[in-house]
Specification:
Length: about 220
């Protein structure tokens, strides 16, 4: 068994991580666009954390330590979620108390809306079917927390289109998160497990809160 595992190539063990890395860095960087008093701690703190995490992940990948990569990824997603939720609360307070400047509100709301998509896309990517390492070990993707359209394709069509070993990548989860924040409901991909349904509900609620705040502030300025 050990010999078989050693014979596996890195490509068989995990999918490319550049998408998730860019999403983490972008989510951390968007915190810099928040207005005054809308960030939990210094606005540069999330991007600093993410940069440090990416270095740790790179070293762990070189050493082949999948567990460290997975744990650090979960911790980073949790921290970014904490920063996101805190900023949404601060934004609500600023609008209710009329403390937020219109331009700061617009810029901050846009940043939080985009951060919401990136953070939850990272959660879905990290958790679905055991994460990227586990998904890569089994060719094809037939079960998980989400039901993608490719999973319903007949086997003969999959083979003819060269998708018999199809599995979701980060872009698929980013598309799922984008639809959840825009349509506030599933589009082409459905949630199957309770944690996935709960995650999509929280994401949609955050997106709806930000959009309602923008609408309310716009009405007040008329």
């Amino acid at each position: 068994m050990a010999t078989e595992n050693a014979a596996q190539t890195p490509e068989q063990k995990s999918e490319p991580r550049w998408g998730a890395a860019i999403a983490f860095l972008a989510a951390g960087g968007l915190n810099l666009a928040l207005g005054p008093n809308l960030s939990l701690g210094p606005r540069w703190l999330p991007i600093l954390i993410v940069a440090a995490v990416e270095i740790i992940v790179a070293v762990a990948l070189i050493r082949g330590n999948e567990r460290v990569v997975s744990v650090v990824g979960h911790i980073t997603s949790a921290l970014l979620t904490l920063f996101l939720l805190a900023s949404v609360v601060f934004l609500v307070r600023g609008v209710v108390q009329k403390e937020a400047h219109p331009l700061d509100l617009l810029r901050s709301a846009a940043a939080l809306w985009l951060t919401n998509i990136l953070v939850f896309a990272s959660w879905y990517w990290h958790l679905d079917a055991g994460g990227p390492f586990e998904r890569r070990r089994i060719p094809g993707h037939s079960c998980g927390a989400f039901f993608f359209p490719q999973m319903a394709m007949p086997e003969d069509i999959k083979k003819s289109s060269g998708q018999e070993d199809w599995e979701p990548g980060f872009v698929d989860y980013l598309f799922l998160a984008f639809n959840t924040s825009t349509a506030l409901s599933p589009a082409d991909t459905s949630a199957l497990t309770r944690w996935a349904k709960g995650g999509m509900m929280v994401q949609a609620l955050i997106s709806l809160t930000v959009l309602v705040l923008l609408a309310a502030r716009a009405v007040n300025t008329l």
